[in-house]
């Protein structure tokens, strides 16, 4: 991840895609600002340290998080840390996933999902059970972005409660096997939530082949709620008529049979 660059003041690491800091002393103003009482300056310093990405800057972020940061600064430091993820980060991020401030917790979950560590993913899954809706939403979004497969069961639990974030997360993660499992939730979760989830899968440009989209259309057709018709109509609106696809043809027939346009 890091190469070595010889400078007049010594040897510093040069991260791939990051800037090289001319001297170790160049970090001192940013570190001082990060430890200071001005939240705006501290948050900016955290962002700048994350953009640098060299080991000394990364360690400065870890040290600051270890000593404790005020919520608005902690949020920026957590985001900065995850720009150049390293295994030691997980322990620090796990601590902030239990923070009293919901924004800090949500940000910690978002960052932890980017680490290929089962311990990190387990914390993201725990976030799906947070008592605060906004935090559950952040954890669901994180699970989707990081494709945290361990979160699937918990996302289905949230889908049964009609939480939109879970529908979006499952749709983003869905492959053909997961789509079949989503379709099997008919009667177990609110119809509107199920229709939304399947409709979002259908609109994904990377989901296919078309035979798989046909299966999704047929699963939506089993849902009587108006949300199902809306999901199919959204698919028709989002896809061109040519080249012809069976999934679109079937969706069109279902919408017409239900009195749609």
List the helices and strands and how they pair.
Elements: E1 2-7, E2 10-15, H1 28-34, H2 39-52, H3 55-67, H4 71-81, H5 89-96, H6 102-112, H7 118-127, H8 133-145, H9 152-160, H10 164-173, H11 176-183, H12 191-203, H13 210-221, H14 226-238, H15 246-257
Antiparallel strand pairs: 1-2
Helix pairs in contact: 1-2, 2-3, 2-4, 3-4, 4-6, 5-6, 6-7, 6-8, 7-8, 8-10, 9-10, 10-12, 11-13, 12-13, 12-14, 13-15, 14-15
What structural keywords apply?
261 residues; mainly alpha; Leucine-rich Repeat Variant; 3 domains; two-stranded antiparallel ribbon; 63% helix; 5% strand; elongated; disordered N terminus
TL;DR of this structure?
The protein has 261 residues and is mainly alpha-helical. The chain has helices at 28-34, 39-52, 55-67, 71-81, 89-96, 102-112, 118-127, 133-145, 152-160, 164-173, 176-183, 191-203, 210-221, 226-238, 246-257, and strands at residues 2-7, 10-15.
Q: How much β-strand is present in the residues?
A: under 5%
Query: How many individual domains?
Result: 3
Beta-strand segment tally: 2
Gyration radius over CA: 23 Å
Distance between the termini: 55 Å
Oligomer: single chain
Strand order within the widest sheet?
1-2
Order of helices and strands: EEHHHHHHHHHHHHHHH
What's the tally of helices? 15
Q: Any low-confidence stretches, pLDDT <50, length ≥5?
A: 1-23
> Structural class per helix/strand content?
mainly alpha
Estimate the helix proportion, in percent: 55-70%
Main pleated-sheet profile:
2 strands, antiparallel
Mean pLDDT: 90
Query: Looking at the structure, what is the overall shape?
Result: elongated
């Amino acid at each position: 991840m890091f190469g070595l660059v010889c400078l007049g003041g010594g040897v510093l690491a040069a991260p791939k895609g990051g800037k090289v800091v001319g001297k170790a002393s160049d970090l001192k103003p940013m570190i001082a600002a990060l430890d200071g009482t001005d939240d705006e300056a501290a948050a900016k310093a955290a962002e700048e340290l994350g953009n640098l990405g060299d080991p000394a800057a990364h360690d400065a972020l870890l040290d600051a998080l270890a000593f404790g940061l005020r919520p608005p600064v902690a949020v920026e430091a957590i985001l900065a840390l995850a720009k150049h993820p390293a295994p030691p980060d997980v322990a620090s991020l796990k601590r902030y996933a239990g923070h009293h401030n919901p924004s800090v917790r949500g940000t910690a979950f978002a960052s932890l999902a980017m680490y290929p560590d089962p311990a990190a993913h387990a914390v993201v899954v725990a976030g799906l059970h947070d008592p605060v809706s906004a935090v559950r939403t952040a954890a669901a979004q994180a699970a989707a972005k990081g494709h945290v497969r361990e979160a699937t069961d918990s996302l289905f639990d949230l889908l049964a409660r009609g939480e939109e974030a879970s529908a979006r997360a499952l749709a983003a993660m869905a492959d053909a096997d997961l789509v079949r499992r989503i379709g099997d939730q008919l009667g177990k979760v609110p119809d509107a939530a199920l229709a939304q989830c399947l409709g979002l899968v259908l609109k994904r440009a990377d989901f296919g082949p078309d035979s798989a989209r046909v299966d999704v259309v047929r699963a939506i057709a089993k849902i009587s709620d108006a949300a199902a018709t809306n999901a199919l109509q959204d698919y028709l609106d989002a896809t061109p008529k040519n080249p012809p696809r069976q999934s679109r043809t079937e969706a069109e027939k279902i919408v017409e049979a239900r009195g749609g346009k």
